[in-house]
Amino acid sequence: MALIDVVQYFDESGKVLVHREPQDGSAAYRMGTQLIVQDAQTAVFYRDGKALDVFQAGRHTLTTENIPLLTKLISLPFGGTSPFQAQIYFVSMKKFIDLKWGTKSPINFRDSELNYVQLRASGKFSLRVKDPKQFIMEIVGTQGLYTTNEIEDYLRDAIVSRLNTVLGQNLKTIFELGQFYPQIEQGTKAEISDFFNSMGIELTDLIIAGIVPPEEVQEKINERSSMGAVGNLDQYMKFKTAIAMEKAAENEGGIAGIGAGLGAGMTMGNMMGQQFQNMQQNTNQQNTNQQNQEPAKLTADEIMSTIEKLGKMKESGLITAEEFDAKKKDLLAKL
Q1: What pLDDT was estimated at residue 186?
Q2: Nearest to 157 by CA among 201, 117, 195, 209
Q3: 97 partner at 20 to 30 Å CA-CA among 35, 185, 203, 224?
Q4: Separation CA 119–CA 18 (nearest Å)
């Protein structure tokens, strides 16, 4: 049975949270063995399944003076000098940075304007062991080697679950997402801190790299950003026409494609203008009739014709399905 006189450990990978000496279980240490703990380490001394002492950075001699409980554990017949079986766990106390978190699947967010939206989020976090004995007891157990790879997935899922809660508390619609990033980061870190502390570790940093909605929702955000404040429906329809012209141009190649796109856009624009001119004339006529207390009614043919034209505008992308349904409902009510 080999006797160990000097015990120390160096982590070349930079990812080891806990390393046990020896790796295969326990070893025979004798009184006077030198224990060397590096600046960024703490060593926890175990014998017979119990943590007897915690050693900070420096050189330590394993004696009954340094570890008083050893006095009762070493047989007196040997004069207190016999070898004894023990384990030493080296715990890294440095900050582990650049750990990644993210949603494995989209999370559901209740949006005040878009109903339910699925979001994906990702970012980075860093941690540090704050209570070596608690961390070994709660997480490491009797493992001889424990790295960040083994705990990263577990912590990632915990962060995502708290993020969902914080989004619901701080955000009403994803259209306001950009301005709430700092509050979401701080809120998520506060929500998850107690969870980290319960394992003897500290969440030192939490960074949100991005919260991304589905492509179709992102298009709505970009559309709103490009359009700015919409004053009235006429401006909205003109904006839709401009977008339709741009898409039409993109569907063809070269100068001819651009010309075709512009032609299609102008055609749709003219149709839109004519339809809204007719609708405006009808509205003016209705206002005049109301003032004369002689309300005018559209004929069934006129109503059906208008609905048909609105349907074509919906198919061309000039109005949304919701706008079409609302106008259709109003027209049918006049039959």
Answers
A1: 92
A2: 195
A3: 35
A4: 36
To 5 degrees, how large is the angle CA 225–CA 226–CA 232?
A: 90
pLDDT at 117: 83
The b/e string for 237-258 (b: 16+ C-beta within 10 A; e otherwise) is: beebbebbbeebbeeeeeeeee
Lowest mean pLDDT among 21-25, 36-40, 59-63, 220-224: 220-224
Name which of 148, 2, 237, 40 is nearest 140 in CA terms. Answer: 148
Please, what sign has the CA dihedral across residues 27, 33, 38, 43? Answer: positive
Q: Which residues contact 94 (CB under 8 A, 6 or more apart)?
A: 40, 128
Cis, bond preceding 132 (omega within 30 deg of 0): no
Per-residue pLDDT tens over the stretch 285-319? 665 655 555 445 667 777 778 888 888 777 777 77
